[in-house]
Design goal:
11 helices, single chain, two-stranded antiparallel sheet, 306 residues, mainly alpha
Length: 306
C-alpha cells in the first residue's frame, strides 16, 4: 500500500511529459523544419526534466544556492498546468467554432466558411458555469444539513484541498506559494478548469480578430493604397479584460464573504459572465452584434451584404 500512491501517479506523470513536450515543440524554432522523430529529441528531454522538477518541488519547494540564493521550484508546477490548459484549449477550440456554407452559392466548393458567431461556445461555457455553481453551492448546502463539527465544504473544494495537501504532487491546481523551504505556504489556488474554459473564449477572440480583419486588408490591397483603420477594441482585448474583471470580482466576493462563509467559490460564475459581457460591449462598439450573437447563417448573410 505504501507504493500505491506512486504507482497511481505514473499515468499523470506520463501525461504531464506529453503535454509539456507538445508545448515545447510548438515554441521551438527548429521544430517546424525538423524531421527528427526520436524520443530523445531535445524538446522531449527538456519536458522530462521540467516535469521532474515539478514533482520534486512537492518535497523540496526551495533549493538553496550558496546559502544566499533561493531557487523556488513551485512555478514549475504552474508551468505544467499551463501546458495542460494550452493543449486542451487547442484541442477543444475547433469544436466550438461555428462554420457555415459559403455565401457564394455559385461556388462548387463544399468547404465550410468559419463564422465569428459565439452562440455555440457561449452555450457550452454557460452550461459549464451552471454546473460549476451547482456543484459548489449545492454540495455545500447538502453538507450543511449533516450534523458534523467540520464546516461544510463542496466536492470541488475537497478535491482541491486534497491536491494541495497530498503526499505527491497532482496536476490540476494553479497555486501561489509564499515563503521558502518549510515556511512555504499556499495562499491562493485556482482550479485548472477556471483557466481552460475562459481560455477557450480568449482563443475565440484571437480567431474572431483574424476573421474580421481580413476584409479590410483585402480591400486595401485591391485599391492599392493604405486605408485608414478605425480604432476598435479587439475581441482578444475584451475577453482578457473580462477575465481580469471576473478575477477581481472573485477576490472581492471571497474576501468579504459576500456569498456566505464558504471557503471556496466557483470562479466560473464570475469569469464567464464578465467575459461574455465584455465581448458583447466590444461587439456593440464595433457594430458587429449580429455577427457575434447571431447564428452562423445570420453572420454569413451579414458578411455577404457587406
Amino acid at each position: 500500500q505504501g507504493m500505491l500512491p506512486y504507482l497511481t501517479s505514473i499515468p499523470s506523470m506520463v501525461l504531464c511529459v506529453l503535454f509539456v513536450a507538445t508545448e515545447f515543440r510548438l515554441v521551438s524554432t527548429s521544430s517546424a523544419t525538423s524531421t527528427n522523430t526520436s524520443l530523445l529529441r531535445a524538446e522531449n528531454i527538456a519536458a522530462l526534466l521540467y516535469v521532474a522538477g515539478a514533482y520534486i518541488a512537492k518535497a523540496y519547494p526551495t533549493i538553496s544556492i550558496g546559502g544566499e540564493w533561493n531557487l523556488d521550484l513551485g512555478p514549475l508546477q504552474n508551468g505544467v498546468n499551463i501546458a495542460f490548459a494550452a493543449t486542451v484549449v487547442r484541442a477543444l477550440s475547433p469544436f466550438l467554432i461555428s462554420y457555415t456554407s459559403p455565401a457564394d452559392t455559385s461556388s462548387t466548393s463544399s468547404s465550410k466558411v468559419p463564422s465569428i458567431s459565439l452562440q455555440t461556445m457561449a452555450l457550452a461555457l454557460i452550461g459549464v458555469t451552471i454546473f460549476d455553481g451547482i456543484s459548489v453551492f449545492g454540495t455545500v448546502a447538502n453538507a450543511a444539513t449533516i450534523d458534523t463539527a467540520a464546516p461544510p465544504t463542496s466536492v470541488m473544494e475537497s478535491v482541491a484541498t486534497y491536491k494541495a495537501s497530498a503526499q505527491l504532487w497532482n496536476p490540476g491546481l494553479l497555486s501561489v506559494v509564499v515563503g521558502h523551504n518549510q515556511n512555504a505556504k499556499i495562499t491562493e489556488a485556482l482550479g485548472l478548469g477556471d483557466v481552460v474554459f475562459p481560455a477557450c473564449l480568449v482563443a475565440w477572440g484571437f480567431f474572431a480578430d483574424s476573421i474580421v480583419g481580413k476584409p479590410l486588408d483585402a480591400a486595401a490591397e485591391e485599391v492599392g493604397e493604405e486605408m485608414p483603420k478605425k480604432r476598435q477594441i479587439s475581441y482578444t482585448t475584451a475577453t482578457t479584460a473580462g477575465y481580469v474583471i471576473g478575477s477581481a470580482a472573485t477576490e472581492i466576493v471571497g474576501t468579504f464573504s459576500l456569498l456566505g462563509s464558504g471557503r471556496g467559490l466557483p470562479a466560473l460564475i464570475f469569469l464567464i459572465p464578465s467575459m461574455l459581457i465584455a465581448v458583447t460591449a466590444a461587439a456593440v462598439s464595433r457594430g458587429e452584434l449580429n455577427e457575434v450573437w447571431g447564428s452562423s447563417d445570420v453572420a454569413a448573410e451579414s458578411n455577404a451584404s457587406d
